[in-house]
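ping. complex inputs:
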Amino acid sequence: MISEQLAVLCERLADSAGGVRASPRMAALAESIAGRVRAGAEPADVADDFDALEEMLLQAGHAAGLSPVRSYDRLPGAGDGHRVLEVLRCPGGSCPRVELPGARPVPCAVHLKPMVVQRLPS
Ligand SMILES: [Zn+2]
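pong. complex structure:
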């Protein structure tokens, strides 16, 4: 399991409508992985379960699986002329998910804490 996959897991857990929430089995596995990461598990410790989760997602018809979908250079809104000066970053350090600051607070679904504002170097 790589850190980008953790970010995607975080996003999928946060998404109440899609991905891992589609089935109780997938949701339970995803929560279990997040719980172990929260408890300090090394990425290698959860890699097998992460692969299993990805397999379940693919079988459920989520073609993208848990492949990375978002990073600094692919933020929504970035590249449309607006300079991104601040992003919300996962608080744990182990999850590289970033979001644009918005009206609603965004919790990290892996660490169960609010995402923190990080100023980008300009
Ligand atoms: Zn996160």
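The first helix runs from residue 3 to 14.
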